[in-house]
Amino acid sequence: MATPPAPGFSLSSSELLILFLLLFVVIMLFVAITLLNAFKVIYNEQVNPTPYLNPEKHKALDYEAWLGKRPSKPSIWIKLLSLKPIEEEKDLVIEHAYDGIQELNNPVPTWFNVLFYGSIIFAAGYLFYYHVGGYGDRQDTEYEKEMASAQIEKKAFLAKAGAAIDETSVKVDKDAAVLAEGKTIFDTNCKVCHGDKLQGIIGPDLVDEYWLHGGGIHNIFKTIKYGVPEKGMVSWEKTLTPKQISAVANYILSQAGTNPPGAKEHQGEKYEEKAP
């Protein structure tokens, strides 16, 4: 199955590291420039110190005079909040009143209008990009792609984990696909000695409770892996993968008690699985 395309705007770890490094360099450059300007001021002050001047005493202004000295041009903060000077309050009074209480017709702040109309423009762009034009993946499509990607990663993980199976970590697996794989491998490599029904020919039968080298998934896996050279049983460690050996061992276990016709006499000792 083909690998699904990765979602948009995705960055690799190396690309993220480069971005963080660039951001760090910009911040350090800003700090260096700030410190340089500060050192220049300190140096100039040491070379040419500013003479100390006695502060001048100014007469306190009344409120009207203070208002007259204020800058007439409104600041950016006042523009953003759409604030009006208090002397213009009379122009904002709404005609109706209740119990002498009057309302002011204050304008909507600029920042609110920017956010409000900006959100409308963003919503229109989002609607066109995802729902009308179909340029971006919607949630259900992203979910399907993520699940397909997860399945690929799962298969890769299981394939990697299968190579780590040994006689101590092997588990009983009754999955039909596993047993079918084990039967195929058994028929190809093992039935010459053990028979197509595991009844035993040259080698012992593998369907009863008696085992020459121990029963159970761990012992069977170990016997297949290392073999019994002194009795003619070859080692399959270099021929089969750990996953394939596990499949064969599980297939043999699945045939226990089938009692095929012509089975050989019991060999070895009766094996009873110990409780974990």
What value does the Rg take, in angstroms? 42 Å
Mean pLDDT across the residues is 85
CATH H-level superfamily title of the domain at 176-270? Cytochrome c-like domain
CATH topology of the domain at 176-270: Cytochrome Bc1 Complex, Chain D, domain 2
Strand content: 5-15%
Unreliable stretches = 1-7
| CATH class type of the domain at 176-270 | Mainly Alpha
CATH architecture of the domain at 176-270: Orthogonal Bundle
Question: What is the N-to-C succession of helices and strands?
Answer: HHHEEHHHHEHHE
Structural class: mainly alpha
What oligomeric arrangement do these chains adopt?
A: single chain
Q: What would you call the shape?
A: elongated
Structure description:
The protein is mainly α and 276 residues long. It contains 9 helices and 4 strands. The strands form 2 sheets. It has a two-stranded antiparallel sheet with strand order 1-2. A two-stranded antiparallel sheet has the order 3-4. Helix 6 packs across helix 9 and helix 8 crosses helix 9.
